[in-house]
Amino acid sequence: MEESNCLPDSVTYNELVAAYVRAGFLEEGAAVIGTMTHGDNAKCCHVHYDAYGKAGNVDKALSLFNQMKGSGCVPNVCTYNAILGMLGKKSRSEEMMLFLHDMKSNGCAPNRVTRNTMLAMCGNSGMQRYVNRVFREMKSCGFEPDRDTFNTLISTYGRCGSGTESAKMHEEMTKAGFTP
């Protein structure tokens, strides 16, 4: 392709990385990401992070994330959401909070998916203090809870032994017009 003076763009990279990942060739996909130039879309990397996460290799995914940033690619909200979800599934809540901070400090605004991911992952780890913090931040940024938010909070508070808080969320959920 390059020999024909047709340089790859972010769509080309995305498709190539996705094909390698689907075929289980993670190292080959990582090699492609290593050839990306400054300004290439970070989107293709989150496919790779997800694959490493599913394979249980979180540290390799984090290394890839740092490699991507080092090459000048700017992580987008999908990239951060993939990393946050992967860390949460491995109960690495402290690192999740650091990545959330990194996300914000790099000018990438967390969206509803980010917030619900943080709530679910911290909740699954029994980290009620983080759940409360994320929920407060969510509301202060103007995100109203949706059905997923309420269900996550009800489950989290129940898991943490806080039946009162769980009942309070259930009541707020029904007042907001959602059914569990």
3D architecture notes:
Belongs to the PPR family. P subfamily. With 180 residues, this protein is mostly helical. It contains 10 helices and no strands. The protein folds into 2 domains: 1-74, no CATH class; 104-180. The radius of gyration is 19 Å and the shape is elongated. 39% of the residues are buried.
Low-confidence stretches: none
Let me know the average pLDDT. 81
- Main sheet overview: none
Report the oligomer.
single chain
Overall tally of structural domains:
2
Number of strands: 0
Short note summarizing the structure:
With 180 residues, the protein is mainly alpha-helical.
Which descriptors apply to this entry?
PPR_rpt, repeat, mainly alpha, 180 residues
What's the SSE blueprint?
Layout: H1 10-22, H2 26-34, H3 43-54, H4 58-70, H5 77-89, H6 93-105, H7 112-124, H8 128-140, H9 147-159, H10 163-175
Helix pairs in contact: 1-2, 1-3, 2-3, 3-4, 3-5, 5-6, 5-7, 7-8, 7-9, 9-10
